[in-house]
Amino acid sequence: MKFKLDENLPIQAQQDLLQAGFDSHSVFDENIQGIDDDSLIEIASKENRILITLDLDFSNITHYPPDKYNGIIVLRPKDQDIKSISLLLKKTILLMSSERIEKGLWIVDNNKVRMKSTD
After folding, report:
1. Residue 119 pLDDT
2. Beta bridge partners of residue 114, listed in sequence order
3. What's the number of domains the chain is made of?
4. CATH number for position 36
5. Contact assessment for residue 3 and residue 17, using Cβ atoms and an 8 Å cutoff
6. Contact predicate 17/24, CB 8 Å
7. What does pTM read for this prediction?
8. Which structural domain range is residue 25 located in?
9. pLDDT classification of 118: cutoffs 50, 70, 90
10. pLDDT in tens, 42-89
């Protein structure tokens, strides 16, 4: 699986994905920070990447229907410090071994994972 990380995620998130053996690009790698949400998801889609973000706007399945994109993961940690985000992402990485994210939306918080798809 390949991932695109939004600018609201710390560098540690990319390191966590790379350590787990995933292909991961950050908006900072490509110098596209500050890009609007629609452009970001389109770039991720063209690159066949799953978007990982803290931005709750991407959980709107009317505006971002999961089956139109490679996948969207919205992390919702209780605290948005680096350690909390990293722990939640590691929980998400473990889940990827048993659940399908492609063409879906995962909203992951400290207590549960909500999985949505339109197919």
Report:
1. 55
2. 107
3. 1
4. 3.40.50
5. yes
6. yes
7. 0.93
8. 2-116
9. low
10. 999 999 999 999 999 999 999 999 999 999 999 999 999 999 999 999
